[in-house]
Write the structure tokens for this entry.
Amino acid sequence: MSVFSIEILLVVLGVGLLLLEALVPSLTRRALASISLGGAALALVLFFFADKSAAALPAFAQPFHQLDTLAVFYKGFALVITLAVLWLTVESRAYLERYTPGGRHGEMFSLPLIVCAGMMWMASAKDLITVFVCLELVTVSFYVLVAFARKSSFALEAGVKYLILGALSTGVLVYGIAWTYGVTDSMSFEGIAEALAAPATAKNAALLGAAFLLAGLGFKVAAAPFHIWVPDVYQGAPNPVTAFLSVGSKAAGFIVLTRVVDAFMAKGSVIASEVQALLLIGGALTVLLGSLPAIFQTNLKRLLAYSSISHAGYLLLALGCAQTARFDLDGSSVAAFYLGTYLPMTVLGFLILTVVRQAGLGDDAQDFAGLAKKNPFLAFAATLGFASLAGIPLTAGFMGKLFVFLGLVENAHWFALSCAVIGAAAGFYYYLRPVLVMFTGESGPALKIAAPTRAVLVLLAGAILVIGVFPKPLQGVLKVPVASATK
């Protein structure tokens, strides 16, 4: 069985769930959730046993898709985050019942499966046309998910903002694709890399196309100065959707960005140094504009929104590093590793927010006051999640930041390094401030957690610690020999 078959299965399952909800009124929300979760879990199991070689792809797909190390990693990443988001959706039943009364929430269980298929196809795309189609499949699904809580004015406002700015960014992206095609006469990443290595290539025109492409993708990954939509959209959307945007949408954007940057910065490219400068300057600016405003946030969803912006900055800095020779990782692999560490700590944070909201509390930091007395285990999990986001040693977040910092040092990008250090220092303050509230606030009624939820919390917390202490397995999956690096 090829990986491509799993992606087809996800689309069929997603569309099938929509039809089942419309045509079978007796089907309950629990049944829809069970089918969706079961389907995603089955897809993940099948993925581990699937033939991941390029030869296993169907003949019609081989001209458009590739299966290299990064493609396989991002496909697995998409399945894991989708499964986590579906679980968060089940946990958010009280919120969904409040703001979508009388519904069975079929879209919340079907659209993530379609988004997952789009992300998986995007990971293996070989040309800009395939990338664009898959990216829009993901983006249009997110338009619906963000505004799904139709009785919430915040969700509707978030949906409108995301729709308008998303459409604008799509226009910029298409303009960049058109310029790039006009200069290189190719839509494939391989053809673009070959054309940019030719001395006769019009450098200024190629750089303009690259700038528009990076700007369009900058919106998708919440990079400055295209990040202004993030705080309001993250705060207004349901928690599962916010988590999906924070991790899934960001991963989708960086899948594409990785492919584009690999082509623009290939060996001999006439615009390699300029693209690298754009990535480093954009990354440094994104870290600062994400970290510094986060200091003043009291709403934890907005804090995690600004946190997401700052992490996008670190990912851009990773892509801007040509090579981290000490760990035999190139910039694309460091970015993929960083996303791998970012997943468990972000999902853990949103799951804890969901559990607290299920208990009748809100998203403000003061709602977590005395949590250590109400539920010590939940307070410990929250502390571990925030510590990892801050990059404290022995956590996954520390290893992700370490690779980025080492890459900046080895390549002597001192300005970007100084901005990254400032962002990390600010992170220690705004991430650990809620922890102080949890352990010093007044106590209240005990907060109980269902056994399945506790098991998921243990799994996520364990992943944070395991990656933080034993990063080599994940590093080994992504390792690229220095001699074969193309940047």
Q: What stands out?
A: The chain has 20 helices and two strands. The beta strands are 323-324, 329-330. Confidence is low (pLDDT under 50) at residues 480-487.
